[in-house]
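ERR on first pass: missing label on line 2. Operator R.T. fixed the label and resubmitted. Corrected input:
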Amino acid sequence: MEELISVQNVSFRYQEEHPYVLKDVGLSVQKGEWLAIVGHNGSGKSTLARLLNGLLLPEKGDVLVEGFNSRDEESIWEIRRRVGIVFQNPDNQFVGTSVQDDVAFGLENSGMPREKMLERISESVKKVRMEDFLDQEPHRLSGGQKQRVAIAGIIALRPSIVILDEATSMLDPAGRKEVLQTMRELKKEEGMTVISITHDLEEAARADRIIVMNAGEVIDEGLPVDVFKKGDMLEKIGLDLPFPLQVQRALREKGYDFEKLTLSQEELVNELWTFQLKS
Amino acid sequence: MDISVKELEHSYNRGTPFERNALKDINLSIPSGTFQSIIGHTGSGKSTLIQHLNGLLKPTAGSIQIGDFLIRAGEKEKRLKALRKHVGIVFQYPEHQLFEETIEKDIIFGPLNFGVPIDEAKQRAAKLIKQVGLDESYLERSPFDLSGGQMRRVAIAGVLAMKPSILILDEPTAGLDPRGRREIMGLFHRLHQEEGLTTILVTHSMEDAARYSDNIVIMEKGGIALQGNAEHIFADSDALKALSLDVPETVQFIHRLEERFNRTLPQSVFTLDAAVDAALTILQKEERS
Amino acid sequence: MQNIIIGQYVPGQSFIHKLDPRAKLLTAFLFVIIVFLANNWLTYALLGAFTLIAVFVSRLPLRYIYNGLKPILLVIILTFLLHVFLTKEGPLLFNLGFLEVYEGGVKQGVFISLRLLFLIMITSLLTLTTTPIDITVGIETLLGPMKKIGLPVHEFALMMSIALRFIPTLLEETEKIMKAQSARGAQFSTGPIKERLKSIVPLLVPLFVSAFKRAEDLAMAMEARGYRGGEGRTSIRLLKWSGKDTTLFIILLILSIGLLLLRS
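pass 2 clean. output:
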């Protein structure tokens, strides 16, 4: 495993007299993994995202991206090229007047020659399946399409990490599916590293690893099956357990002792089947 | 007040090259005091439909009867303001409509517009701020100092302060975290029962629709694709899948159990408890046999 | 809300649509100058012919041209009347009690009105056949050399293109907020001016709040995507000067010479 990001003892607050939004946070991101950072609104998870690509700088501690420290002014642009963020509001991050313009925006900033830009653009819009919309204006696109354009704009820069900062929370179910599906494909086919910041535990259940944040601190970290063992803790900090886990917990209270945690309905029904066979 | 929509049709930008049919042939009746959900993909016409229910949009054809108010294509209903007093709408992201210096002033904006005396309006504000889960001391604060979730509660209080008898909710929980979602839906459900409101909920959440509604309408491309109570709507998973809509998780669970255990289970299972009970009946019966 | 026309572009494939925006901008600019060369019936006829041919070649529905003229029509009529009644040259045509109408006045009135009419038609042709973003890029390139003397050309162009990008979004938002406040009993269209101004507050405050939020988000997103000013930036938009554009200039040149020869 290769470490891409290392966050070391980071504390952060927006203004000096204000309370800390992040307190002594440490974590590491491995190449090729899908990492979910979960927590309810105000837990500091979006602030963390902004520290990861140098939009904000830590008050204490360090953020290292592939060896570049976000404190060095020279490194900031290296870091931003390596870490792309898809933000929450699809409208407020669409800079261009058309899909092509928007995907080009980051490339233009990097000073890429036009010919090469055109190549990169056509390549990346294909990956998010927006190639038929190149001339479309943003107000004619759905939320999910706009977010896919945002992803295309990021991957055109060939970053090592894409952060989804609650990127699906303003979308309808169809839009949410299409964005997550797109990211899963990119991870699988391109080996992209993904950090998904979300309060949707169902989405997090499909991650490789979960970090739980509450009140500015990392309070748990591990594989989904391990984190979900602490269902009560997750609910206490305002998160909803996925439905299969809720059913399983209720059954456990009735005296049915499950061997393993079931994150999906299929697993749950299979477990119930084995129960029935045993008895 | 009963609502009855007849052959409603609406097209945007009529007479221009951008003309677009947003609604066609909508027939819908919502009896007073019921909970009606409207489901459909973005662009299926849900928002257009609800805006007809208090005269924000006028029908291109057809009619809408609400109590003794009648809105018909081509005719002007002169009592629009009186109608709007009865029909409150909580729009999507209602926090965007806040504008006053203090929360109290914002909440009483609606009532004052409808001629409620200021003292009474303030009393309502004091009561409502607590109902939506904030402390009374918030009344004197600026709405813009609040968190997004709190702003939404204030905006909702501003609509409730008009004491509407019909409450329309356009995706009221969009963008909230799970706890906020639960609390807001709990509030609306309580209000619906306690105040005898007619509630119309536009939502993407099959779970909410199944749990709270007396009736559900599913819209597709400006028309009504399916309509009936939750049991009826969710009995036919294939029809929903054909519209690329989800089935509530509880219903999916029941269907999976039926398939695996080759059993028939009760169909109207829309809560966690009911789903757990269904699992228990299976396990217990299998144990006995 | 949807009826508001701000430089409304009508898509098309005509000769004029396909011209380089710089050629169209320069033409419009030069036209504004050469219009003042005309001073007799013949020269006005020449300008009129140019304008009408341009409209014809653009293959735009005449309705759009008319719509563009509508708001200015009153101004044109007023200008005409002012000249008719106030210019006292040439033989007296007729006398309406205290108002005397001279031949020179009528001529002057017709000329000035035509001048206005042509100017508006040519500039609307520019906006009707060129996307606003192309106009912006055209201006940015044309003004490019001014960067050297410290003119913030890139910043201006970026500002314009972001404004263009957000006009539909903000219009939509305005409509939403108006509806939300109407549902709370607000009225926007009736009552005396003072009341109307007051009634607009519930619309303006939320609009400003949201525009600031958007601006903040957008700045963050731009920074995250590596934006750091115009220096060293390349552009995806490419303008191509072709034979068509040169042809246009030759036509314009002939027109100008014609005007110079024929004016009295």
